[in-house]
Amino acid sequence: MNSHEIDYKIIGDDIQLVEIELDPNETVIAEAGAMLYMEEGISFETKLGDGSTPDQSFMSKVFSAGSRLITGESIFITHFTNHGLNKRKVSFSAPYPGKIIPVDFKQIGGKIIVQKDGFLCAALGTKISIHLNRKLGAGLVGGEGFILQKLEGDGLVFMHAGGTVIEKTLNNETLRIDTGCIVAYEPQIDFNIEASGSLKSMVFGGEGLFLATLKGTGKVWLQSMPIRKLIQRLSPVGGNTRKGNQSILGNFLEG
Question: Pairing mode, if any, of strands 165-178 and 88-93?
Fold first, then answer.
């Protein structure tokens, strides 16, 4: 199914929303609860499937919904359709402060791998499925990155990231990253988890025990403030932002 061709505008700076303009009978799909406002003439329907395969069987839809449940997302996708005679707008907001990233699948090969909470909305025709990291160790020891989402299509997709977004293009290169800071990457990129350094660095460095590695040629999207770090800063235990408190040594000196 070819994706609907939608127009959009991103509004805001650090807490953004995307406003999408739909022609008559055009549809955009979104995560449940992401809608901020919609104009008269647009109606919404909550469905099990993403609508990319109109003749999809009920059991296939159930399987797809179950896959989304594994990733920690809602099993439902909301479909917003313009049933009016004129153009109408609907907007979607991100769940926490950060940036909205528009991606045109026609420019990148039609497929990306996204962290489990990175998808916001997309043109109807976009397929959303589960992506399991083939390297089991990456998920077991890294704690993140084993279960991801795969987005496929030929239209526009909107992702959300925390803090500032960095888009990098690797040219047969390797990038080492904090495990929570990966938003998305092209499927030809090899993803893995490795130890962050020597035993001393792992225990006292405050950077965590493991780092993610992205290796190959293609685009990657990173975020400066994953929701995990934001929660740590806002919580009573993790609210102290002094660097020393992020390591075992810092906790010992503080206690």
Answer: unpaired
- Taking the complete model, does pTM exceed 0.90, yes or no? no
Q: How do the pLDDT tens digits run along the chain, 255 residues long?
A: 678 889 999 999 888 999 999 999 999 999 888 999 999 999 999 887 676 666 555 555 555 555 555 555 556 789 999 999 999 999 999 888 889 999 999 999 899 999 878 899 999 999 988 877 655 454 444 444 457 889 999 999 999 999 889 999 999 999 998 878 999 999 999 998 876 655 454 454 444 567 889 999 999 999 988 776 667 666 665 445 444 343 333 333 334
CB neighbour list of residue 87: distance below 8 Å, 6 or more residues apart = 21, 22, 23, 24
* 193: Cβ contacts below 8 Å, ≥ 6 apart: 135, 137, 138, 139, 141, 142, 145, 179, 210, 211, 212, 213
Our CA angle for 178, 182, 187, nearest 5°, is 130
- H/E segment holding residue 205: none
What is the set of domains in the chain, with CATH numbers? 7-254 (3.60.160.10)
- Amino acid, single-letter form, for residue 168: K
